[in-house]
Amino acid sequence: MLRIAAVLFMIFASLPMNGSGANAEGGPEVSLSLNPGPESAEIKVGLINSSDQAQVFEFPTSQRYDLIIRDKSGEIVYDASAGKSFLQAIQYLKLNPGEFVSWTESWDYETASGRVGEGSYSAELSIPLKRKGETHASVVLRDKAQLDVPEENPAFRKVEVSGENGVYEVRGEAAAETGRFYYTAEDGHQVLAGEAAGPSDSKFPDWSPFHFKINIPEKSLPENGTVILSLYEKDKEGRVIHTYAAVLENFR
């Protein structure tokens, strides 16, 4: 039960943290959603036309937004536009009433000096909008959100999952202190795949690749819920340590 609780805490802690970039005038609205995972954060930028008329927006280049993430001291640790090239030509974006468009970024928590530490970081989004044909300067819509970066897992990394409907493959690298790790699959209410030892030739502290399959009977899958993979190792006393949680599949 303690392991299940720990896994659920990690999953709930990684739920998207949404900003609040609503425009009270009923025009375009922006949104910022951050979903931190064990090794990277998914960042979603949204723009919606909440008016009752179609809108055509004009951008001076192919860049749609500015997004930066700062640490507690105010230093920039991530800049979404850094190192990217944008088409230097006027671009247009048409949104019908109620139409929503989104863009997705991914940040691996890395900076020029290495991975950032565990803790809270602030994300700042800005989108300059000017309607087609207008001559005045763009109106900049802004949003903010908090990103909680988890502690780096010392035993598991580069974990990738694939598959659907109860048949999954898991790949990654492990550096278990004892040379052995374990895994289960759960849906938050019950264990769907009992504890099994993962294949690994790990010789700590070296990282070693692993690959295994999980098969869950279709009748055991939730109709509405999330199948969660839990990777972990055990200390000399048999206590679970270094838990790594990953989503195998969402059912809605």
UniProtKB/TrEMBL annotation:
InterPro entries: Intracell_prot_inh_BsuPI, IPI. Residues 29-127 form the Intracellular proteinase inhibitor BsuPI domain. The keyword Signal applies. This is Intracellular proteinase inhibitor BsuPI domain-containing protein. Pfam families: BsuPI. Keywords: Signal. Residues 1-19 form the signal peptide. The keyword Signal applies.
